[in-house]
Amino acid sequence: MTDQHPDRTEADPDADIGTDIASGSDPDAPSRTGTSFSRRTVLAAGIPAVAGVLAITALSGPRPARLGDPTGDEQVTAALQPHLSGHRRVAIAYLDGSGTTRFGGFGAEATDEFEVGSVTKTFTGALLASAVERGEVTVQSTVADVLGDEAEGSAIADVTLAELATHTSGIPSLAPSWWTGRFTGTLLRQDPYPARDGDEVIADALGITPNGRGSYAYSNLGVALQGQLLARAAGTDYATLLGDRILQPLSLASTYAPITPEGLRDTATRGHTSAGLPNAAWTMHGVAPAGGIRSTAEDLALYLTGMIEGTAPGASAATEVLFTESQSSETSMNWFHEDVGTGQLMTWHNGMTGGFAAFTGWDPSTGRGIVLLTDTARSLDDVAVAVLTGEVEL
C-alpha cells in the first residue's frame, strides 16, 4: 500500500485500501490516542474489495461483537478490557522489561492460534539477517544476483534485498495479474491472494516496472519476492526455510506458514471481519512471506524476547537500520522504528487479514513489549502503543 503519512488510525480492515479487507470507516480518521504512526502496514486487499464487502455486509447485517470472558493475568485483562470494544477473542502477552512475561486474554488462551498477517514480514526480515550471517546474500544483493539469467531484461533486476525489506523498491503492493480474483475473493470473504506458488510470484514480480524507487511505499509483493528470493538462495522453499532457521531454533512449535488451505492445522480457527461476519483463512500461497504465518501469544512472546535480547536467529533484523526517512521514522529489515510521541523510537509491526489483527512491538529504552492478537479484523495499534508508552499500565 502507498504511504500517505496519515495519523495513526484505528483502521477497520474492511474499509481501507491499505488494510486488509474493507468495512466502511474512514481509514485516515485521527487516532483516539493522539499519537501518530507515519505508516499503516497491514496487507492490502485493494480498492475493488471495498465495494464488494460493503455490499455483502449490507445484505447480511453486522453482528455485534461480545468480548470473551477474561483469562490469565487479572491486572492485564482489567487494564485492557476498556480498550477492546468490537473484539471477540483476544490473546495478550506483556513483556514487562524485567524478564517477566504475563499472559492474559478474552475467550482465548496464550496457546490459541491466530493469523498474524503482516507481522509475518518480521520473520522474513529475520530470514534475511540469517542469510546475511551465513554468507548466502548481502543486503545489497540484487534480484539478478539471486536469480541469474532468469532476471535478464527485467526492470527490477537491480533492485536490492535492502530495498525490498524497507518498501523502497518501487514495486507496487500487488502484481497487476492479481487483481482479477481480488473482487470475488473479498466479496465471498475468502483468501483474496491468488493461488500462485513461489516461482510464479517471482515471475509476476519480474514483470513489474518500478515506480517511485527510493521512496517508501508499502509493498506486499516486494516482501513476498524478498522471501522467495531468500528461499531460492538457500535452495529450499519458504515454509521449510522459516521452520529450519527461525521456528525450530526458538522452539516455536505452534507457529507455521500453511501456504495452502491443505496446510492448515486442526488448531486453525476462522476469524471475523470488523462487521462480525466469518472470514475464511488466508494462507496466501506464494505471497505467504508477506503475511501467511499463524501463531500464538505464547510463541510470539518467545520470538519477541529473542528479538529484544538479540538472541533469536536473525535478531539483527530488528536493529540494523537500512532506511532513514526522518529522525522519527526508520526501517530495519522489515521492522519499523517510530517515535509515537514520546521522543523514543518504538520497534514494531502490525498486521491484519480478513478475519484477524495483530500487533508486536517494544520500547528499546525500557525493554517493555506487547503482543496482541484478535480474531476480529480491527486494529489493535492504539491500545498496543498506549501500553508501550505507559499510558495504559499493566
Explained architecture:
The protein is of the alpha+beta class and 394 residues long. It is 27% helix and 14% strand. It has helices at residues 47-60, 74-80, 120-133, 143-147, 161-165, 182-187, 198-206, 220-234, 238-247, 297-309, 381-389; strands at 70-72, 90-96, 101-106, 114-115, 271-272, 278-279, 294-295, 323-326, 329-331, 336-339, 345-352, 357-363, 368-374. The strands form three sheets. A nine-stranded antiparallel β-sheet has the order 1-3-2-13-12-11-10-9-8, with helices on both faces. The protein has a two-stranded antiparallel sheet with strand order 4-7. A hairpin with a 5-residue loop joins strand 5 (271-272) and strand 6 (278-279). Helix 3 (120-133) packs across helix 9 (238-247). The protein is globular, with a radius of gyration of 19 Å. The protein starts with 46 loop residues before the first helix and ends in a 5-residue tail after the last helix. Mean pLDDT is 87; it is low at 1-36 and 38-59.
